[in-house]
Structures are given as C-alpha cells and as structure tokens.
Amino acid sequence: MGRKALVIGGGIGGLAAAIGLHRTGWEVTVLERSPALEDAGAGISLAANGVRALDALGVGPAVRAAARPQYTGGTRTPAGLWLARMDGAALERALGTPVCGIPRAELHRVLREALPTGCLRIGTGTVASAAEWDADLLVAADGVRSGVRAELFPEHPGPVYSGSTVLRAVTAGPVPLDSDFELTWGPGAEFGHIAFADGRAEWHAVLTAPPGLRHPDPLAALGSRFAGWHRPVPELLAATRPEDVLHHDVHELVTPPPSYAVGRVALLGDAAHAMTPNLGQGACQALEDAVVLAAELAAGPTPERALARYNAVRRPRAGAVAKAARRAGRLGHRLSHPLAVSARDTALRLAPSGAAVAMILRHAAWTPPPLT
Prior knowledge:
This protein is α/β, with parallel strands linked by helices. It has a domain at 4-69 and 100-159 and 252-330: FAD/NAD(P)-binding domain (3-Layer(bba) Sandwich). The chain has helices spanning 12-23, 48-56, 60-66, 88-95, 104-113, 147-152, 218-225, 233-238, 270-273, 282-299, 303-331, 338-350, 355-364; strands spanning 4-8, 27-32, 43-46, 68-70, 73-76, 82-85, 99-103, 120-122, 137-140, 160-170, 181-186, 189-195, 201-208, 246-252, 261-262, 265-267. α1 (12-23) packs parallel to α5, α2 crosses α3 (60-66) and α2 (48-56) runs parallel beside α10 (282-299). The mean pLDDT is 93.
C-alpha cells in the first residue's frame, strides 16, 4: 500500500501521530496553518497513559528529562484545608511512571525534534484533501473546530461551549511552592498550579462564566476574584507578567462524531473527542490516538481496514474519558450553591485515602500497543 501521510495540525496530537507514522515507515508531512510556532498553552500534566504513549513513540526519555515528577499535592478549599491528597509515589508504584508536569513549549520542542527536517510546514492555510498533496492517508489533528470533521460530517453539530472559561500563564521566574500540583475548588471557580523543573510554575484559573467574557486587566480581575484564597495563589499571580496571561473559552464535543475514520481519513485528538480539562486527559487521549493509529496502520493490510480498527479501539475509550471529564467538572468548579459545595467537600474529606489514586488509575492504566 502507499506510504505517504498528510497530517493536518502541528499540535501535540498531530506531531505525535507524525512520529508514530514515521517510525513505522511512512513518509509524513505535517501542515500547520499558523504562520509561527507559538506553542500556545502554558503547561501540562501528563498522566501515566500519556507518558507510556510517549515511550512507545520513542520520546519518553526526552520528555522525562524536561519534566518534573508530581509526587505531592492534591485538592484544597479556598481557605487552604485539604480535601484530598495526591499520592504520586503510589501512582508511580502502580503504573511504573510518575505523573509529569512540563511546559507545553518544551513538550512541543521534544516532539518536533523527533521528526525529520522539513517534515513540519507552517503557515500552510487550509487543506481540502490528501489528494492535493498526493498522500495515501490524511490525519486530521486540526483541533476542536476541525475543518476536516465538518467536511466529513456536515450535519454534525460541532463543538459547544462548556460553561467554563480558563485563564492561565507561566510565572516569569521561580516561585517557592510546597507541592508539585494543586487544585483548589471554590464556588464557581477553580485555581490550580503545576510546578516545573526550573522552579517556575504554571497556574490556571477556571471560571463559570458566559462565553466571550474578557477583562481589560486579567491579572487585576483574578486578584479580585481570588482575594483571600490560600497561598500560593496570590504569589503565583504576583509572579506573572500581564502579557503572559492566556484566556480561552472551553469548548467540547458533547455529541461525538459518527466515526473517527472515513476511508483513508482519520480524526485524532480534539478533532475527534474534544473534552473538558477536568481530568487532565485531553493531551493524553490524543497521544493514545497517535500510538494506536500508527500500530493499526503498521498491522495493515490497507489504510481503510486499519482505520476501521482504529475507530473501533479509540472511540469507546476516548468517549468514556470525555464523559467522565464532564462529570468531574460538574462536581468541581461548576458547583456554586453553598449546600452543594459543602456536601461535596465533606464527601471528599471522608473518602478513603486510596480513593483519589483509584480514580486516577481508572483512566491512566492504559498499555500502548507495540509499534512494529
């Protein structure tokens, strides 16, 4: 069969898919419509399934070298009381790898460096079909508003606003922190941080808000919104340059596409299953997609049959994670009524010590197929 692949989208999923295809003998071209590689996004936590996918792609050691393992932290109230502790060492014992926190720019760099020179082409605009590039396979990793998905399924309703908007940034310099990773849940809001290997930190603020809401001075607005919250929330905001704050509304695919593959065209990552960030699984599921796609194509005998198997494997798994992420959001920052918040906090405090580990294992205990 033909061995030329075209990947649309130079994000985490698209680059990972290109690596998997390249390692299994495909000639790959990655098209990114942005005129510059801005590496949008502040930081990311990679659960064990994401790290295992990176290992399968051959870039796991390089990612670990640039990441900081997450062993300490958990979930707190705005006053600083612990609702649940994260036992990163227990997760590592169970899964063989720790959760890793890494700047997105570093993850993108590692992925790009694993590809042949000239494979990635930026500023390419839109692409209608693989035939334009004489390709035997088209991988659509073009995000939540995927143009390829819209062409394949014109009746699909597309993404919907989740009800949440997120502001995030990486601090300008190192910040003293007592934990590797934290989430704090207050009425209608969440604040969290990820510590990086160089001492800097990524923070994010998730707010229940109407779509399109923007602030002339985001840091001032957040300072007011999170006034009185426990440290290091004020310290993280104070250590941030205003121009570094990113603000995005969260959209998701509540209605899954009818299939993740049609003929020789595959949907991957957010193009197939854009989900809310409440489980930290969006990028991990895209990495799983990339490994399974490459493995099925390597197994042959034709792209059409391989992509049919890819759809059969990935659609149930990613769909279940997306639903779980949506449920987690409803029990997290989306709660605003004082009685509901109090009931949730009480339930978390009374939960067995291993409950948080068990919940993470439910989604992170994934073993990648071999790439041959």
